[in-house]
Every structure is written in C-alpha cells, then in structure tokens.
What does this fold into?
Amino acid sequence: MSQRVALVTGGTGGIGTAICRELATAGYLVIAGYNSGGNHDKAKAWQDEQREAGYEIDVAYGDVSDAESAKQCVDGVVGKYGTVHCLVNNAGITRDSTFRKMTLEQWDQVMNANLRSVFNMTRLVINGMLEEKWGRVVNISSVNGQKGQFGQANYAAAKAGMHGFTKSLAQEVAAKGVTVNTVSPGYIMTSMVAAIGDDILEKIASTIPVGRLGKPEEIAYTVSFLASERAAFITGSNVAINGGQHMF
Ligand code: CAA
Ligand code: NAP
It folds into this structure.
C-alpha cells in the first residue's frame, strides 16, 4: 500500500507540531497547514527545525477561515500528493472577552477560524476519502466547548459546534470506511495558553486534578491513534484529555 497522506491545519503551532510528528512517526506523509499572515519564511524555518529533529514534513499555506484560500491550500496538496486520507482540523484562535464587551468582530473571527474552517477544509477532502473507502477526520475541540468558560462565549460556541458537526458527518460517511472524531484538550502549554494572564492561569491550573497543564504530545498520541487502522470502529466520538478538569 502506498503511503497515506495527512493534512494538519495549524500544523506549525504548539499542538499541531506534536500531531505532525506523531503522524509522521506512525508512517503518514504529513503536510502542515500554516497561515502566519503569509510569512512563508517562518514556515520554512519551522520545516527546517523538524528536519533537524528527524521529521520530514511538508508545509502548505492557507487561511482556513477563507473558503477560497482553503481551496488553494487543498488543491496544492492534492495536486502534489493525491488523496488526503487524514485531515486534522486543528487550526484555531481565541479572542477572549466577557460577553457584554465582545464585539461582532471577535465573535466572527473565532467562529470563522475554529468552526467555519472545519466546513471549508473537510468538504474539500471528504470525496477523496469516500472514493478510497478509507479516511480519518479528527477535529480538535476544547474542554471549554464542553463546560463553557468565563470570557469565551465565542470560542466555547465554536468548539461545541464541532461536536454536532462530528456526529452528523460521522453518520454520513461511516459505511464507506471514513471515521470522524473529536478530541477535546484541556489546558495545554502552548502560545494560546501563554496569552492568559498569569494570575488567571494559576487559578485555572489549580482546578486541574492531575495538578499540571497538559503537554502537546499528550494530545498528539490520541490523534495518531484515531488516525490509525486500529481505530476503525471509533466514530462520532469525543476523547476528552484534560487532566480531570471536566468529567462527564
Ligand atoms: N468567574 C466569575 N467572575 C469573574 C471571573 C470568573 N472566572 N473572572 C473575572 N470575573 C469578574 C471579575 O472579578 C470582575 O468583577 P467586577 O466587575 O465585579 O469587579 C469582572 O468579572 C471583570 O470583567 P471584565 O469584563 O472586565 O473582564 P476582564 O476584561 O478583566 O477579563 C477575560 C476577561 C480576558 C476573559 C479574562 O477573564 C480571562 O482571560 N479569562 C481566561 C479565559 C480563558 O480561560 N481563556 C482560555 C484561553 S486558552 C484556550 O482557550 C485553550 C483551550 O481551549 C483551553
Ligand atoms: P497555537 O500554537 O496558537 O496554534 C494555533 C494554530 O492555528 C497556529 O498554527 C495557527 O497558524 C493556526 N491558525 C489560526 N488561524 C488560522 C487560519 N485562519 N488559517 C490557518 N491556520 C490558522 O495554539 P494551540 O494550542 O496549538 O492550538 C491548536 C488547537 O488546539 C486550536 O484549535 C485550539 O483551539 C485547540 N486547543 C488548544 C488548547 C490549549 O490549551 N492550548 C486547549 C484546547 C484546544 P499560524 O500561526 O500559521 O497563523
């Protein structure tokens, strides 16, 4: 069998990097999607770093919140490698604000980068997976999409929306060997979490029973498992990885 292809949006970010490495280790040909405001040199530097660490990972530019840009990204990948067998919808942003201060722009930016992006990207790869009768879609949601969070009405709504998307699409494609699942990380030490004020982050960390923040690798192991042959019977599921911060 020829090497399967995985596209990871936000692949050069904190969790994305760990996911790309795990999927490469699992034998996938991996492409990391990036946006970085069009800073291609930054992506190339990331790629060099991965190579030095022993990982050969391609990069593909695109703004996943924009349908046309997403199409250019996927067209480029498909043109170069053929079918995308595994899509990890990992790109995301926060624009935290209490609801009464939240602007329409903050709402739209977060909905577009975290949820509309999932529509934009998945619809471009799903037919290829169905034709191959094999595919994996993994959507990166959040503990805050499950429990809500002070200051995150926009983000929690977008991340919660992923569950409805996952469970609906999973039903539509299950008979054709394609699984669709959601992973909900808790607080993981990346630049996204580093942006929270120290005092607030300390308070949040004190509510995590395991007693620490998570590591990107701890998310990546699960994504890699869901993307494997062995996870063929898991679909429409959510895996919560949050150190016990939210159990249900
Ligand atoms: N619960 C209840 N009340 C709270 C509160 C809380 N958690 N936090 C603040 N307040 C209160 C304050 O005491 C204050 O009360 P008074 O007005 O009576 O004095 C009031 O709310 C402050 O309201 P403001 O609108 O002025 O809030 P702010 O501008 O000071 O801060 C915020 C708002 C930026 C959202 C800040 O609370 C914050 O950063 N919160 C953290 C949000 C968070 O967890 N983000 C996660 C980012 S990482 C991520 O998203 C990854 C992932 O998936 C886990
Ligand atoms: P991060 O390091 O900031 O990574 C976010 C990635 O998303 C970046 O690589 C960024 O790409 C990409 N991105 C954002 N907007 C994009 C757009 N419009 N088009 C293309 N790419 C875009 O943060 P992270 O913690 O690794 O987050 C990864 C995912 O995990 C996010 O969906 C986040 O919501 C979720 N998550 C994180 C945590 C956590 O605690 N860290 C917890 C739960 C869920 P560029 O930098 O190239 O622009």
